């Protein structure tokens, strides 16, 4: 039995995927940093922030300026004298204007609030993508661990079959056992060899999937430290955090709907605008033989100034405002219903996860007890082999029980870890308890 223990201890600490050793924290940190969807969500956040700043700056007065200058030189025939004369015309114009909306039914204020909640919702959507990424990484990480443990167990089974078959060959040579038993043990060895190849293939597939999720070009090693050193243990069911990205996004959407409803309602109020305008122009003409031109004197150094208040009153808009108000109310009611449904589904997921956690804990304890019993059965088979009492069918049954109990125990162990991580996330609303 010593060689079984040696094989087991030598393969437990690490799962070989390359040269570097990565735990769950490092996988998540790297995945969040290099995920393309998260980077796109960050850029979308910047667009929403720009819209929010634009809506705030729209409250300020606008200011426009205009200026031009023109100079013309030419020669023409005077119609009175029939002589050539030189002409120089010069003109310049300039204006400046400003205006500010004094009142518009608080639409601008509600638009600013709308865009602020839009920024917060964009942050929630980014967190939602991050949560999906983390959840995918966690499942892929534990899938690699499980696939590696199944490969280890397949290798152990193959080693046991090889050792038993080699001992049986020696007994056949000295006439203590029949050739039939030796052939049955050899068939078991070939079957275990096939299972090992299959397990190794499944492990490689799991590695490739993790590499793809992390967008890795290099080969890494995933270790079992996160699973061996549990971050926490939950002893009671948790309540959903209001910080959960899905719930927070719905709440911000509801606030956006409320502000939009106020915006469309504000369209029924008059709009009051104050403005100021100043303009000036200058014209000069130098024409040979012309000393005084009444038209030139009229427009030279002309100026105009004005201050104004403009009142725009909506009288009839073909029912557009009324329809927009109705649609805004319907959208608000829909999003409020959606929030309640998401909250109910989240609570149901938490309850189901908690029940699954309790079941996996019981399953782990039962599988662990069965695994310890299967080790004793293997020792019994070893002793029977030495006295020539081994039964190939009994060997196959014991090995199957040994492998299944171990696989079931490890699956339950990893499922307990996953369920606890998910429940902790639902309790806190983020993954900081892992990556910090």
From TrEMBL:
<protein>
    <submittedName>
        <fullName>TolC family protein</fullName>
    </submittedName>
</protein>
